[in-house]
Amino acid sequence: MSIEAIIFDLDNTLIHRKQAFAAYTERFIERFIVAEEPASHAAVVERIRLADQDGYRDKKELYTELHANLKLKNPNTTVQDMLGFWYGEFHKFTVLMDGAKEVLSELRSRGLKLGIITNGSLRTQQAKIDRVMLRDYVDTIIISGGVNIEKPNPRIFELALNELDIAEPSHACYVGDHPTNDIRGAQSAGLHTIWLEGFMTWNETDIAPDHQIESLREITGWLDHLSYPSNMEEGAS
């Protein structure tokens, strides 16, 4: 197998969205919500976490629900106030996944082309990418809100391949945490796939990733194995 490019998901792959959202939630509660007792505070945190649906919930719908069901510090607060807080503040909590930049640097040093494909609004995803300064580490960034195509639609993967000048999809690999959007989507476009475990439950019954990892740092070992499979090593002596 000859790999010329590796393309990454963003949230819960190159950046730790769950960690960022937990920190943002504390700031959101401090700004808008009455939750003074530890038990009530914990219940509000969990309610917001579940309502967010790991980031896949429409934001206006999310904040309309929270506005209607949580006790507000200021009764004059509007849904638009909450949305404005989201767009102005969430990206500030962005944190890199462990080893992200080190792995990207190592892959680039090996001559691989690198990219990002992410679902989400152009404004939010660009702000997160710039917050942790990932732009200079990759050759292309495709954001669904900027191209009006979302994963798992194979066309969004094809756009990235075209920008990276990869003619054969099997010469590229996609790394992501979402079984459907990332793994099924990339495989439907003909890419090899690596599933980053630990964030989403595997819910696909008729497909499997080509490889699965618990840390981004494992990608370099996977590439080494492709270049020097164990049977070749045993026969080399």
What distinguishing features does this structure have?
237 residues, elongated, disordered C terminus
How would you describe this structure to a colleague?
- With 237 residues, the protein is an alpha/beta fold.
- The protein is built from 11 helices and 6 strands.
- The protein has helices at residues 17-32, 38-52, 59-69, 79-89, 100-109, 122-131, 144-147, 154-164, 179-188, 218-227, 230-235; strands at residues 5-8, 113-118, 140-143, 172-176, 192-196, 211-213.
- Strands 3-2-1-4-5-6 form a 6-stranded parallel β-sheet, sandwiched between helices.
- Helix 3 packs across helix 4 (79-89).
- The two termini are 23 Å apart.
Instruction: Give the C-alpha Rg.
Output: 20 Å
Helix/strand/pairing category: alpha/beta
Report the count of strand segments.
6
How many helices does DSSP assign? 11
H/E series: EHHHHHEHEHHEHEEHH
- Report the portion of residues in β strands: 5-15%
The average pLDDT is 93
Strand order of the largest sheet: 3-2-1-4-5-6
Assembly type: single chain
What gross morphology would you assign? elongated
- Describe the biggest sheet? 6 strands, parallel
Distance between the termini: 23 Å
Helix content: 40-55%
Which residues sit in consecutive blocks of at least 5 with pLDDT less than 50? 231-237
SSE inventory with pairings:
Elements: E1 5-8, H1 17-32, H2 38-52, H3 59-69, H4 79-89, H5 100-109, E2 113-118, H6 122-131, E3 140-143, H7 144-147, H8 154-164, E4 172-176, H9 179-188, E5 192-196, E6 211-213, H10 218-227, H11 230-235
Helix pairs in contact: 1-2, 3-4
